[in-house]
Design brief:
Helices cover 25% and strands 30% of the residues. It has seven helices and 19 strands. Helix 5 links the parallel strand 4 and strand 5.
Amino acid sequence: MARSIACMGARPGDIFHNAFGYGLFTGGLGFHYGAERLGLTTVPVSGGATERQVMLMRDFGARVLGATPSYALNIAEVAAGMGVDLRKLSLRYGCFGAEPWSEAMRGELEAKFGIKAQDTYGLSEIIGPGVACECYQGQAGLHVWEDHFYCEVIDPDTTQVLPSGEAGELVLTTLSKEALPMLRYRTRDITRLIEEPCVCGRTHRRMMRVTGRSDDLLIIRGVNVYPSQVEAFLVGFPGLAPHYQIVVTREGPMDAITLEVELAAPADAPSVAKIAADVRNHVKTMVGVTCDVVLKAPGEVPRSQGKAIRVKDLRQAKKP
């Protein structure tokens, strides 16, 4: 983790604002001890008490932020309500992970915080955070620490190893873990590997951003849909805030989805109708699935203080 945090831009002597959850979650403690090992002062805030998060970042002069991307957006929203311009603080780098997020979300975070936003990857069964991370120089794929983890990408249906560059399910084998070694552990995360060295000079293979999980794939009227596909389209869409949920229901024998998306600002009925129609048309064009769109007033979509719950599955609720 010390190596990962350095890769993402931190240096000994920096102050690290740790908004990952502590307790029975590997994120907060993994980042905490990695930051201390690197020589950073760690502010162990965890999630929640968002107004205090903003106050501490401002008062302590944190240079590096760690959080889930959805909760970081929540912090930015609260800061704006407090009249605090996060871009004027000492923050320079963001370490984000624990949930899939898109390039559009990266742009949103960088614009609101005035930072470089890097993706991190880990899982509790292997080590917690620390399997791979992006570098601040390239921000183009996550460096897998191959002296500790051997990675493969397989076809999730046949389990056959795929050629480099093809998307499939990530499989990991631990090379240095002693207490609980894992052999060819199926992560269920969908990604692809690239061999080319990064602009930063590191020669580890890189895994591209996780686009979803093989077990959270939605099949809507025969179309494969990952929540991250929807997010990539919604974040940054004119008139919308970056807060949404995908509601899955069943209409007779067929599954259907409704997108509940928050408006960036109050709007009149004709404007709301036009935005909803535009979203429906673009989702149909870009993702290939027809959906209903429900636009919520600012603040109505539930906020995350940890991992965001993007999919609300109501199919079981309707079964007799």
